Amino acid sequence: MKTKAFSREIDAFPLTGGSRRDRLAPFRTLSELFGQRWMEGAVPLGLAVLLSVLVTATTPVGPGDAPLILDEATEKGLLAIGLTVVLVGGGIDLSIGSIVGLASLGAMVASRAWNWPMALVVPAAILAGSALGAVNGFLIARVNMRPFITTLVTLVAFGGAAAALQSAYSFQLGVPEQDIVWDFLGAGAVAGVPTGWVVFAVVLIVVHVGLTRSRWGWWIAAVGSDRRSARRNGIPVARVVFCTYVLSGALAGTAGLLTAARLGRTDPDVGQGWELVALTAVVLGGVSLKGGRGSVLRATVGIVVVQVIQQGTIATGAEGSSYTVILAAALLLFAVLDLKWGKYRQRTAEKLRIDPGRITLGPLVDVTEPGTVWTVNDRLTDASPIGLGKIEGAEDCAVDREGNMYCGDRRGWVWRFAGPDDTEGEIFARTGGLPLGHAWDHERRLLVAVGGMGVYRIHADGEPELVADKVRRSPFSLHDDSGLRAVDDLDVTPDGAIFVSDFSTRTNAAEYMVELVESRPNGRVVRVDPDGSTEVVISHHVFPNGICTAHDGRSILVASTGLCRVDRLWIAGPKQGQLEPVLENLPGHPDNINRSSDGNYWLPFVSMRTPMSDLLTKYPAVRRRMTQEVPLDSWVVPQLNVSCVMKFNDRGEVLGVMWDATLRNHPMVTAVKEHAGHLYLCGVSNNRVGRLRLESDEVGPIDPASVPGTTTAPSLAVVDR
Amino acid sequence: MKKKLTALLTAAATAMTLAGCTVDRGGSSAGGGAGGGKQTFGRNVQLFDAHKKTHEAMKGKRIAFVPILYKGYNLTLNWGSTMERAFGNLGADFRVYDPNFDTDKMVKIINDLVARRAVDVLILHNPDVGVLTKQIDAAERAGIHTVVVNMVSSRLGDAFIGVDSVHAAEDITRRAVQDCEKRGAPKRMAIIDGPGNDAASLMWSKGVHHVLDPAGYEVVTTAHTQWQNALAQQAAASITQQQKNNICAYMVAYDLNAIAVGDAVADAAERGVIRPDSIGVYTMAADTRWCDALRAGKVTASAAYDVQGVGEAAVVTAQQLVQGGAPAGSTHTVAYVSHTVVDRSNVDDTTIACYKGR
């Protein structure tokens, strides 16, 4: 009997009884969107691009202007790249405009007045820029001056030097020098692409790769984010800061050289005000003024937007000063946006993260009413403890043929208790996660659903081996749901596939309270094939928890803790791939399901419904406020401290219910395993595993631990279907 | 990482080498057929036909005037208003673009007009000898005629019209030398020009030196003002303070700056730093305000040139270029307007002196 691949996953959303609108979680979508790292720059950048689209739509600026815009963007873009690096490093460089002027005039003086060969002028201009940057770097990194005031002073100083240079050589400057290198830089092309663009592209790629992929780039971001912790992590802060200014200066020098070649402006105002253009561009591009975050690619988009705006003012023949006003207004607007958006983005994302949904449960059965199958009793009270005080939160356990009991522990361990009389036990394996569901596979190897990690197989020597920890990511999802993080219970089918419940694609296994309160269809059931491939078989399920292969091996029982129901997923036969209800409207929230030896199933409740908890499921807004304003341990949730185990059959009939009315020994039962006439009671918040002797009439001939259809034991599971 | 980077760089370098680097010298590919049209007139013309044809030729032609500064600047306002009147009468579409002393912006305006082919004739006022070279090239390639006024550019364009700066400077310097000799003043003068990198300043200095050097005069300093009155006044004040009476004249390249220099000199005389009327202030062109200053005795003399004539000549040249039908950049001419030296004795009788903004 081979389980064929399902044609498509079953969408369990209709089980919630919600409308199509309930499927959407708008707040959470917003939270996810805000939580994306790229959102930091995306909003300012999106607005900036919108602005430029607006400009192109309302002014005569068109495709014909593209080369002009790119020419301008090339030179100022180099400044923007340098400024981005400085800003990411936590500084600011206002002197770049004057460095451009000094480098540009210097290059022309060297060429026209001193008759230097171009082979010397080109590197000299870039080196001069670096040297001026080094002055900034020295003052800021070594003398520890404030970047803003330092570069403001050097802006004036370098500007004055440029004016003095121009004045001293104005006569010689006025006479253009013909040189092939000047022409190549200003009007040449490499493979048809203008030289300036090529220079810019090379710089852009190198700096982008450097900033995002190299240690050097990470250092800059680290220094910009938090100097103190960068220093404590051994990053040479002063050197990194120094280097950012040198780079900025070198790029400004290159820009100066390019503008000298392209325009040949020889007045002392060359480069004046360019720092404002570059600054506006990087802020428009979403580079944070607070340091630590920014991308040269985005800064490049910013500079193009700024140039488009400028081209717009020129093409419309607007008043000369209007461009400066527009630029300043844009800078102010986007600086405020940077401040507020950066501040509130994370906060909002965090606040909107839990977005409770509405689910509809049927009328509540009153378990306190005497004389019903549900009536509270003390059957569980006398269960003898195993590992008392040693175990912390065994959510599930597994018992082998020899009677050795293996159970999880919230510290990440799997305990092993040798035989029924061992109460001391030993740590059998260390998983590193939160071991939840336990099951045996065909070869009698232990399978554990490790919350936060995935499905593991534990070998006889206690060595865990990963079976599966991811599925294919859903397309068009902002949220990465590929990881199996909240795996809870699992079971094996006759063909060797493992079915595992992943109760939430959003929260971690330890955050089950959030999931219980949110009541959204975040969970899924995944099939892990023997070859390790994974497939989601049921999606959009509310807190799927217990998983149990039916006695005949043709279906899987799936308990939904959130919806208080159990469904049967057919994996073989004519109904294969269909989900049909077995138990609905249970009085509590069911947990792991396991087979009993008499052909039925054991099902414990992790908590019982109360009129109050039922009321809350109808009012998601109340739960939202609760999660936002009240600490987690004060949330109103279903009654968690109960111990209730029921037995039911394949037809969905409740055969019996066992309680520990004292709540003293087993306040919460999350899994029940039957072995050799005994019940093992596990609880995720209990400090023991309970062992309860069953009456002889409750015990049947089946070995519940073996995979159905693989043993010689007669199957009693003849169900009317 | 390092290896990858090296490989990447090597690959990029190789690609570039293989792709080859090119230089576009622009000027070599002159115009082609662009801008070339039929000549408006043949050898013979009918009397009324000429009127119609002239208007037809200019109708709807887009003409742009891009001076270094327009608003509040009498010199360019004078040219602009002449052009506006003339082109308006002819039914052409005339527009002034004002970069407001911003060379970057001026370049961008011209680039934009050329890229969008938004103009048929460009009338330019170049702030810097070299700076518009590529723009003039691009305009020629786009079939746009260029007329450069008053400040010559290293790329000539179709035509240059303006004052003969060197000649004017020589004339006024001769006058200054005469005045200095008369007073028996020291053979020392100072030049105050514009930014110093522009055609007007360069030629002014050249003309002044042409006369002064053989006459045994010394130029004590050449100060640059960026055409700003405040800077001119500042320069004159400090030179006066340094030189006291050991200087006989200021040779100021621009008439409005000369007023500021005159103020500084008058101020120095009032404060007793120098003797009254011991320093002459000479310049080129004669704005109405300069004429007022002249009448007030603040400035001495100027090589006044026909400012209005420059505007008129630009209008004429533009019409000739359009009617001539030759492709843009196929002809290159330089033409000068008249100039003459004016002082208090003849300023009110000289028609080209005391120009106005409109």
From TrEMBL, chain A:
Membrane-traversing stretches: 78-110, 116-141, 148-169, 189-211, 237-261, 273-289, 320-337
Region listing for Disordered, in residue ranges: 699-721
Superkingdom of the source species: Bacteria
InterPro entries, alphabetized: 6-blade_b-propeller_TolB-like, ABC_transp_permease, Strictosidine_synth_cons-reg
Topology with respect to the bilayer: Multi-pass membrane protein
Subcellular location: Cell membrane
Occurrences of domain Strictosidine synthase conserved region (ranges): 488-573
Keywords: Cell membrane, Membrane, Transmembrane, Transmembrane helix
PANTHER family the record matches: ABC TRANSPORTER PERMEASE PROTEIN YPHD-RELATED-RELATED (PTHR32196)
Protein name per its UniProtKB record: ABC transporter permease
Organism for this UniProt entry: Streptomyces viridiviolaceus
Higher taxonomy: Bacteria, Bacillati, Actinomycetota, Actinomycetes, Kitasatosporales
Automatic annotation (TrEMBL), chain B:
Keywords carried by this UniProt record: Signal
Ranges in coiled-coil conformation: none
SUPFAM superfamilies given in the database record: Periplasmic binding protein-like I (SSF53822)
Top-level lineage group: Bacteria
Pfam families: Peripla_BP_4 (PF13407)
Domain Periplasmic binding protein span(s) in chain numbering: 79-325
Signal sequence range: 1-19
Chief location of this protein within or outside the cell: other
Subcellular localization(s) per the UniProt record: Cell envelope
Family affiliation: Belongs to the bacterial solute-binding protein 2 family.
Name of the protein: Sugar ABC transporter substrate-binding protein
Species: Streptomyces viridiviolaceus
Origin organism lineage: Bacteria, Bacillati, Actinomycetota, Actinomycetes, Kitasatosporales
